[in-house]
Design brief:
Cofactor: Mg(2+)
Number of strands: 11
Protein name: DNA polymerase IV
Catalytic activity: DNA(n) + a 2'-deoxyribonucleoside 5'-triphosphate = DNA(n+1) + diphosphate
Order of helices and strands: HEEHHEHEEHEHEHHHHHEHEEHE
Number of domains: 3
Radius of gyration: 22 Å
CATH superfamily of the largest domain: Reverse transcriptase/Diguanylate cyclase domain
EC number: 2.7.7.7
Subcellular location: Cytoplasm
CATH topology of the largest domain: Alpha-Beta Plaits
Oligomer: single chain
Length: 344
């Protein structure tokens, strides 16, 4: 979806259309999503709200409505399900579809993508961009190529050249730190990456080296997993003012644990590791984790572990602006079998 949260807000409030909009808290918060009008000014998701306001003084902040976003997401996934049962959601606004099991007998992946995009626009009033290719890595890259409201098709013949021309920072799995390291090593594009041997990449990037080696050649054999397992489930909250007192912090942590555990139960998962995240007044972020051999039994144990981890960070003389609590080490479901290919 294109600027999903912000686009929903602009759809539902005509006064916001054509204006720079950020979904998130204006005071001390972060930007959850930015409209394309805001992105022109360099406003991006995960940016501190104060920074976003400096970059775009006319920026309009809107409080998030996640219940609405979830409902729209369900509506869109219902459209997907008319075309294939093989849907792997990545978030509320993005998913992989394997259309080999072509429920409508359309026969061409590009035509399916065009029809899905048209239905999303007609039924939700929102726009979506699609990438069509022969594997997940290339489909993901292609989906970002012609945003907003675009379609990009990468055929097997085009794949290697398409990858070679892209900056490595566009590669899924290459974050800012890795991209900076690659730049220091003289790797700017997919072609630069492809010029390196597997041994060299593994020596410099460890276990990720093999992934970069295949990606540079447009190779990816991961199947679309309809029941993709969660890696972690949790919740976090940014406070209106920095918290210092232990009783205030533990009270907020209890609230956060409640939100997180509701999501754990909804996801029907069981996990072994509890991770506490804390961001201090100076934006320094630390995490502390504890694992339980038999798995965390209930919300009370989840909170007790989180409270113990919080105690390791106290006293918080500089004040804490954000707390989060996450459960990971989750039990995984069996992956769906790989599918054969449809014509692009």
């Amino acid at each position: 979806m294109d600027a999903f949260y912000a686009s929903v807000e602009q759809r539902d409030d005509p006064a916001l259309r054509g204006k720079p909009v950020a979904v998130g808290g204006m005071h001390r918060g972060v930007v959850a999503a930015a409209s394309y009008e805001a992105r022109v000014f360099g406003v991006r998701s995960a940016m501190p709200s104060a920074t976003a306001k400096r970059r775009c003084p006319d920026l309009i902040f809107v409080k998030p409505r996640f219940d609405v976003y979830r409902e729209v997401s369900r509506q869109i996934r219902g459209i997907f399900a008319d075309y294939t049962p093989h849907i792997e959601p990545l978030s509320l606004d993005e998913a992989y579809l394997d259309v080999t099991e072509d429920l409508r007998g359309i026969g061409v992946a590009t035509t399916i993508a065009e029809e899905i995009r048209a239905r999303i626009r007609s039924e939700t009033g929102l726009t979506a961009s699609a990438g069509v290719s022969y594997n997940k890595f290339l489909a993901k890259l292609a989906s970002d190529q012609n945003k907003p409201d675009g379609l990009c098709v990468v055929t097997p013949r085009q794949g290697p050249a398409f990858v070679a021309a892209l900056p490595v920072r566009r590669f899924h799995g290459v974050g800012p730190v890795t991209a900076a390291k690659m730049t220091r090593l003289g790797i700017e594009t997919g072609a630069d990456l492809r010029a390196q041997s597997l041994a060299w990449l593994e020596a410099n990037f460890g276990r990720s080296g093999a992934y970069y080696y295949r990606a540079a050649r447009g190779e990816d054999d991961r199947p679309v997993r309809a029941n993709r397992p969660y890696k972690s489930v949790g919740a976090e909250r940014t406070f209106d003012s920095d918290l210092v007192a232990e009783e205030d912090l533990t009270a907020e942590l209890a609230r956060i644990a409640g939100y997180a555990w509701t999501r754990v139960e909804r996801a029907e998962v069981r996990g072994r590791t509890v991770t506490l995240k804390a961001r201090f007044q100076d934006f320094r972020t630390v995490t502390r984790a504890h694992s339980v051999a038999g798995g965390v039994e209930d919300q009370a144990q989840f909170l007790a572990i989180g409270t113990s981890l919080l105690g390791m960070l106290l006293p918080a003389e500089k004040g804490i602006r954000l707390l989060g609590l996450t459960l990971s080490g989750l039990e995984e479901r069996e992956a769906a079998p790989p599918q054969l290919g449809l014509p692009i």
